[in-house]
């Protein structure tokens, strides 16, 4: 590279840095070489640069969305054994993973079932698939989120905190029935549910069906109103099977006997 070329090179890198075009910045040198060698028309070169920048921005967005989603690692639709839960099918989850049919209109998903049947796994797997499709997700233990919202309320910024959660198209509230009204002022949970109603989706996992939800909210009217809003546009999965690990242990024992 000649001296004037290397000055030009440095100047371009400075400008690209200033413009925050990191995709172009990392690739333009190689593209210039190819373009010069192959005699590309200017428009082709420019279009290749734009593609680099778009791809880089896409990668970064995905990384940011994965980071903010707080998904438990290693839970995917592909490593879920659907034969253990006959009431949910892989095809159904793959359809939900598109998001367009339900997240678009702020519909909800409810998953009920005893511990160990794969509710959290499926919720996380769905969250992961949705992030990959470009949706923004937050996975949280319900108790953690309630605690955060309570602090926000004490600091008189509850509506601000709830509005900020709007950036997540889907909030996964894991283990809602672990929240009890004596531990926490759970009306913040009701505020969240009301604020998202018909606009932004919620996925709830629960060990206990609705009959036990009066233990979550401060009074019966609020419990009924919360259930009403959550189920209005909801797909409900009742996963009343044996714990996956127990099923696996039983299968193993049977295999050893035979
Ligand atoms: P739940 O939330 O219903 O209590 P989890 O999703 O935490 O259950 O499941 C418990 C463990 O068993 C997790 O490690 C999960 O990955 C695994 N597991 C549960 N069901 C299945 C399944 N059908 N296929 C594969 N792994 C499963
Ligand atoms: Mg769970």
Record the SSE blueprint.
Elements: H1 3-18, H2 22-38, H3 42-69, H4 90-96, E1 108-112, H5 119-132, E2 137-141, H6 142-154, H7 158-164, E3 170-174, H8 187-196, E4 201-206, H9 220-232, E5 234-238, H10 244-257
Parallel strand pairs: 1-4, 1-5, 2-3, 3-4
Which strand order spans the largest sheet, edge to edge or round the barrel? Answer: 2-3-4-1-5
**Molecules bound to protein:** adenosine-5'-diphosphate, magnesium ion
CATH names the topology of the largest domain as Rossmann fold
Radius of gyration: 25 Å
Brief overview:
With 258 residues, this protein is α/β, with parallel strands linked by helices. The protein has ten helices and five strands; from the N terminus they run H-H-H-H-E-H-E-H-H-E-H-E-H-E-H. The chain is extended.
């Amino acid at each position: 590279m000649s001296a004037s070329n290397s000055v030009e090179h440095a100047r371009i890198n400075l400008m690209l840095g200033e413009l925050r075009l990191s995709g172009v910045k990392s690739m333009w040198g190689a593209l210039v070489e190819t373009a010069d060698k192959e005699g590309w028309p200017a428009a082709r070169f420019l279009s290749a640069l734009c593609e680099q920048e778009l791809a880089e921005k896409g990668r970064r967005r995905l990384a940011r969305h994965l980071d903010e989603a707080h998904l438990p690692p290693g839970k995917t639709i592909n490593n879920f054994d659907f034969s253990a839960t006959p009431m949910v099918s892989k095809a159904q989850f793959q359809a939900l993973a598109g998001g367009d049919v339900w997240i678009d209109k702020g519909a909800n998903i409810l998953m009920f079932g005893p511990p160990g049947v794969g509710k959290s796994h499926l919720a996380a797997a769905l969250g992961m698939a949705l992030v990959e499709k470009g949706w923004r997700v937050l996975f949280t233990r319900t108790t953690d989120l309630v605690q955060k919202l309570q602090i926000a309320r004490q600091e008189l910024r509850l509506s601000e905190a709830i509005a900020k959660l709007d950036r997540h198209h889907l909030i996964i509230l894991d283990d809602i029935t672990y929240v009890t009204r004596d531990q926490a002022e759970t009306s913040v949970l009701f505020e969240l549910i009301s604020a998202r109603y018909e606009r932004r989706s919620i996925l709830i996992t629960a060990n206990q069906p609705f009959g036990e939800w009066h233990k979550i909210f401060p009074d019966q009217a609020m419990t009924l109103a919360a259930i009403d809003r959550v189920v209005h546009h909801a797909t409900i999965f009742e996963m009343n099977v044996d714990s996956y690990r127990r099923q696996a242990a039983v299968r193993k024992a049977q295999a050893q006997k035979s």
